[in-house]
Fold each of these.
Amino acid sequence: MNKRLVQATAAVALLCLPWRMTAQSRVFKEVSDEMSSQVRAIMQDESLMGYVVLTRLEKANADSFNYRLSIMDENLNDIGNYNFQETDLELQQVAFEQNVLCLAYLKNTFTRPKGKSKPPKTIANSALWLGKPQVAKEDYYKYDTKNIHSFLYSQFLDINGKLISTAELPVKPIYDEYSIYSNGFNGSLKNGLRITAIPERGFAYVYGDGPSEYPEAKQFGSFYLHKVKEKDGTSNERLLVYDLKGQQLRNTILPREKSAGLSVLNQEDHIYVLRKKIIDASDGGFELLTYHLSDTLFTRTERLSTPSGTDLKILSFKKSLDKDQPHLSGMVMNKKYTNVFTLPVKRLARPVYTGIFDIRLNQDSTNKQFSYWVDGSKKGVVSKKSYINSAKSHGYFNYAFDDFSGNTYYVGTGVHKRVKWVSIGISVITVLPLPILAVLGTQKVKFGNTVILQQTAGGQLKHYATLASNNSNFYPGRVPVYAAKDAVSKDFFSVHNEDSKNSYVVLDDKKDIFIYDINTQKTLKTIPHKAGEKHTSVYKAKSGHIMLSEYNRKDKSTRLSIESL
Amino acid sequence: MLFFFQFANGQSYTAAQLSAVVYGPLQDSLSKAWKCPKIFQAKNTQKEFAQNWENRKAHLLKAIKNNDFVRDTIIHPYISALLAELTAANPGMITQPVHLFLDRTVVPNAYALGDHFIAINAGLIMQARDREELALYLAHELAHDLLAHADQAMKKRAELITSEEYKASLNDVLSSRYQRFSRLKKVMESYSFDRSRHSRYNEQEADSLAIILIKNSSISFDAAYFLRLDSVDGQYRRPLLQPAKDHFTAFGLTPEDPQPKTRPKGLSAHNFNFNSADSSHTADSLKTHPDCEERYRHNLSANSTPLVHTPIPAAVRQQAVHIALYDMWMNQNLGHAFYRLFQDNEQQAQPKGHAFLVGNLMYSLLHAVQTMDRFNSLRIEKKEEVSSSYFELQTMLERAPEATLVRYCQELDQQFTSQQPEQAAFRSFCARLAAPPTEERAAKLKAAALAFKNSYPNSCLTEYTNQFIR
């Protein structure tokens, strides 16, 4: 009869007892410190199917660890476990097709460093902190990167956690030779791995390894705390295809290009690889590579541009909701402003983009739609100077999605430019107007309200909605965009309800989470990140839902909840 | 008579009968009187034991403060009379007065806290078929109390944790370079195994003594009661006789089709091997109770002849249902509450008070949706773990948009007629929840909650409205 009470008491006792006694406290702390977990969503195209939690339990021997992989459905119910032993693993991506889970890891074998050391101070570090050299508080472990061997390691499991097969391929990641952990270090692929499910056939991977080629990586190298070591050799980008049993069907090296990112989608017999080439630090330089699943000779490379050759900035590369076909959408760039992030913020009140586009891919045809405002043809919606009249602001767009009716939406932040009358006033009443204006500037910019443009399935451009968001403070007009990055480029994601065919946009803003209902063009909910001791975060979840994670600082507990919209 | 008066009011108990009020004055004296005895010479063992003792006391005091218990005027006197009968028949064994708590929870349970405190919950009273079955459960807990099993468990725990052997096994974990988690798990499992083994032995011992206590009091004993314990966790696996949708219709609602138009995506829609994934499965060695079959066989020879089965009064059973349903409602366990309410409906053909409660549950769900707490309020269950009826209900409640829930609440309001001003006042308070949640609405709700509390200070419904005052 008292079964539940006894069980509960025992559980509480087991949890509480260790913290009451020194020896136990120590053993529990040391054992739990050794454990770490990674959570990844299981995706099939744009649908979230469930979650996996990879827990590194302990060192099993000198070279490997014991891991537990927990598989959960989309409601966070446990449905399977898989325990295994492996060397250092970093879970990259999880895909799902035909009851088969495909998990891809970056696997490393290395000699564990023995002693701790301080990482060297760099000039870049000193400069970044305005003359205050940043000194690492923790002691770091230094790895001998020459002795690190890395692999792209894949596991294929059924959803109960039964292993079907594994696959392994050597890769050359970029390493950070210093780490605060002796059990693992920071390594990453030059172009992060992307996986797409190929219906009824298997999985397609794209990734790039070798040294980073992105100029900004060196330019902004000071953002790294430690010097990044690159393994010798050249960069490679690959397309891999595995079948549902984990057999490799294809291993293709992509044509050599300096690139900064890859993505992949499948449509029947075709695999589309989107690649961001590095061209003078431009936001453009996207190209689409097409491969055939069975015809290894068939390839097609298309630079993504307007008919007149202007580069496009891709904001979205997903399967369309209405036709389940690969769909690209984004902004038409302005040749004058190739890299928006290096511009002063006041320039965002100029036509940094000249229009919008969406491209629908089919095996046999490509349907492209462009709407330009720079020619003055969309005056009623967006002016020549990219001013959106009904929103009373300019817009910086960084997210796009489509709905079930084939309309495409471009989501961004309102850009509000004002004249700095104070600095002009000071310069007028003082004897040194020009130097004062040069220092203080004459313009200021603030960012606020979410602006949504719509390109209908028929190609008509509309200002769809302007909805509330957290407003930033005014930035001096000369501040570069990257310095105001958090205020300019906000985190949006879309949620679609396949049953009601409604779409929502979630904005994870600085102070609040905003949920916009696209059909009613209204703000559905505003959830503050901080409310008393609680801090709420938002994540993608199953169809028509979002996941809220509520961390209670007082209780040190996290409460997850999957809420329908 | 009192029962009918209370249910006509839609109340199963009053706010003054909740434990924080009814046992409130006792808390200080209990805290002082329940002193840890000195039983160990070794300082650290005694310290550990004292800590366990204090934890147990804190657990009970917290439960009282949280209103986990209720001292109502229907069940409590009924169970107390049964307890008095057992006590009176065993004067040689039961020498101290036994304190009885009525726990409000729904999952059938009874427990002995030690030092003559025992508790039985509403779920167990709902589950029991007759008075004799309840007497067995009470006698079993009395036996645990007489045999001081709770105290013994604390003593054993203190001894084990301060033992050299235990410390050595922990040090062994610390000194090992590899497999530390596995080693610690092994230590903990052996500890749990030892505890479970003792617990199973204690249960057998309590069963044997319970039968003696029962037989001394001339209450009939039937070993078959042990077999019924197997079904305590299966409430949501039992299908409804009618679809969940029809139950709502019976309350005047026109529910939307719960079936999604498109096949839901997600792993829950795929087939998987349920048995291998069942994380709630307990290894045999870790079971705290002997198997029900084993308990039945072991005690079959003690069966009374003839077997007497005295029905539990309908008022007691109905009161248990109300207490449990209200507890689920107050604890925002809404999916389970709807289902248990429908199950009870099928057994008793819409008992009084259910029409009021179904509306309250719907308003609570609406409030949960508004505060983005639907997932935890419904406690989404795997379809493999519940009946198809439960899954249908869960799907319907999970998918209903906010606007639909507002409509449901309004429809239930239109159908609900009550002569009781308290119920009408409560529902007019709830009706404010249909408005979009704004700061202005929060202020209005707070004012309305205060007004309700002032008008009906003794209403158990203030437990719900108080959250809006806070």
Amino acid sequence: MDGTQLLKGVLPTAVLAAIEQGQVYGYGILRLLRSAGFAEVGDASVYGTLQRLFADGLVSVYLESSERGPARKCYLLTPRGAAALKHGRASWSVFQASVDALLKG
Amino acid sequence: MTPMGPMDELDRSVATRAESYAARVDAALSDLPPDQRSKLTHGLAAHLTEPGQGGVPLIDELGTPQEYAAELRFTLPTLTPVPVPTPAPAPAGTKRSTVIILLAVGAGLLAVLVWVVLLVAFGLSPTGYETGPQPAATRAPASAVPAVPAPNLVGLTEQDAISQLNSAGLLLGTVTTASSGTVPKGVVMTMAPAAGSQVPAGTTVDLTVSNGPGS
């Protein structure tokens, strides 16, 4: 199975989880995903997913001014985002169990 | 006017390169509808000025704008819905339909599983063919069918023999005739299984019946 295709479905939930775990900046989210084993994930995946989450009202964005260098965007879960993460965790569980059962053969 | 320090120079350089890079990403997505495209690239230039993973500016860690655009495109939903300008006050956002679909799939799989178990329990295979080598009448194991002693039919007329068999719960099998100088015509000479042997009810009993002397 192509890892990229598999990740695509779960990426929004994964990004929400990363934010919940305290990774509020784009590069922190990317680093967390990479350290989880998704070596092929690039900034574009994270950025594009964050844009979608924002458009759907699941994350809110704050601009943090910085002494050294440009302002940084800080991402936080909205209440709907927290609910979406909860649903995402549950649906991943169901999905995983179904695939495991099918592949057991 | 304050003199520009080394850090400001770096920022301007990064900002310029980020603008240029974002413009080329936008160009690589020119096939997309304008509102969808701007949703993707709207804050990209600013985003690219942020620090990257390795502590250097993000812009310096990236591949080509075309590669970035391709990966960015990949994050679009597969079935692109009509763009909604403001989020509607619906519960749980985009995840709800995914949960419903997955629960339906899970329930469907469960239903199939239950159906298979029930079919197997009732002695059928899921394909509809009856399992097991025996026909329905004798499908039950031998111990569950009453055993009866075969009544002695030798010396009875064929008609009486059949009566006896039926009373005992046994069935007439093959009847063979044979000539006999001693046994009258129409009388049973031999039986199989033998008289007195314990046989399951419904067993067929074969008879040899005399057809008198000569052929």
